[in-house]
């Protein structure tokens, strides 16, 4: 249905089975689709393992840039996703490293506003980063600015400081310095009902102070799909299904890449908002509407049970 009017159709059982029969590649978001924090969503591990064992190409596309892919493999295994390997994981931090190395072929240092996981992905790709070695009392008036900074990369940073923001603003005064962002997620839900400001909130501050707009690498940018296409052969958008929990990133990502999309109701977005977008007079909102909706990824389980019965 990609490119056509989005139906926002609630499906189950045989309809899911028919949809899976038509798809070779399954793209899955992680947070809110497969797990909440350190707790797997009921049935999610069984679904993912079954998809892989039934010959589907399964890849994971996450805007979470706080951990390197190696740590994701450990988390998958820890939560029962035993068939997942490193090559299936495409995080915004990994794709940012590929963009800097392979697309812009950066020749110089990168100033990073982000967590250690982002720095580790850049280091593995051979991207030199500016070392943070300021005195605790340093200010933008007297701190050192690194030479040869060719890019500022913004991700989730739980140790964000005013000095980091000020330094990044100074580097971006050079028009040849790239302004990149791992993702533009505004916030993330916490189990307590509170929220955690996301990378998008830091980007907004830096866009105001620098007067520039960031190039976003993660969802909903097409670049993550280009990374997948470059590492897997025969990726046909018509044979792909994007499954996520956030309309403004996952569903828009699928629409931007020409993929069918499915919303799970175990995360951020709910069906009422999807229906509101579907009925909106603004045509740009229609790209945020899913083709299909399921209550949970566990709704896939009956389709596999039917397949297993037929093979016995």
Automatic annotation (TrEMBL):
The keyword Cytoplasm applies. NCBIfam families: HAD-SF-IIA, PGP_euk. The keyword Hydrolase applies. Divalent metal ions. Mg(2+) is the most effective. Keywords: Cell membrane, Cytoplasm, Hydrolase, Magnesium, Membrane, Metal-binding. It comes from Etheostoma spectabile (orangethroat darter). It comes from the Eukaryota. This is Pyridoxal phosphate phosphatase. Substrate binds at residues 188, 219. Belongs to the HAD-like hydrolase superfamily. Its main location: membrane. Its cofactor is Mg(2+). GO terms for cellular component: cytosol; plasma membrane. It holds the Pfam family Hydrolase_like. It is a peripheral membrane protein. Mg(2+) binds at residues 29, 31, 245. The active site is at 29 (nucleophile), 31 (proton donor). It is found in: Cell membrane; Cytoplasm, Cytosol. GO terms for molecular function: metal ion binding; phosphatase activity. InterPro entries: HAD-like_sf (IPR036412), HAD-SF_hydro_IIA (IPR006357), HAD_sf (IPR023214), PGP_euk (IPR006349).
């Amino acid at each position: 249905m990609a490119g056509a009017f989005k139906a926002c159709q609630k499906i189950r059982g045989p309809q899911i089975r028919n949809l899976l029969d038509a798809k070779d590649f399954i793209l899955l978001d992680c947070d809110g689709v497969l797990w909440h924090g350190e707790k797997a969503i009921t049935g999610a591990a069984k679904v993912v393992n079954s998809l892989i064992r039934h010959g589907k190409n399964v890849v994971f596309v996450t805007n979470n840039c706080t951990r390197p892919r190696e740590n994701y493999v450990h988390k998958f295994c820890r939560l029962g996703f035993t068939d997942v390997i490193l090559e299936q994981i495409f995080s915004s931090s990994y794709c940012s490293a590929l963009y800097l190395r392979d697309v812009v072929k950066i020749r110089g240092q990168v100033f990073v506003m982000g967590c250690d996981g982002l720095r580790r992905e850049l280091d593995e790709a051979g991207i030199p980063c500016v070392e943070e070695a300021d005195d605790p009392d340093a200010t933008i008036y007297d701190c050192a600015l690194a030479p040869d900074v060719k890019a500022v990369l913004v991700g989730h940073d739980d140790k964000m400081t005013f000095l980091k923001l000020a330094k990044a603003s100074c580097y971006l005064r050079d028009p040849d310095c790239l302004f990149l962002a791992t993702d533009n997620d505004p916030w993330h839900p916490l189990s307590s009902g509170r929220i955690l400001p996301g990378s998008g909130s830091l980007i907004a501050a830096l866009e105001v102070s620098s007067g520039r707009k960031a190039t976003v690498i993660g969802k909903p940018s097409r670049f993550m799909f280009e990374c997948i296409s470059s590492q897997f052969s025969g990726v046909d958008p018509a044979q792909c299904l994007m499954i996520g929990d956030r309309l403004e990133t996952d569903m828009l990502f699928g629409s931007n890449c020409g993929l069918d999309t499915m919303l799970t109701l175990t995360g951020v977005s709910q069906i009422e908002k999807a229906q509101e977008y579907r009925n909106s007079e603004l045509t740009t909102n229609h790209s945020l509407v899913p083709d299909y909706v399921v209550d949970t990824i566990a709704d896939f389980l009956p389709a596999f049970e039917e397949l297993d019965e037929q093979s016995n």
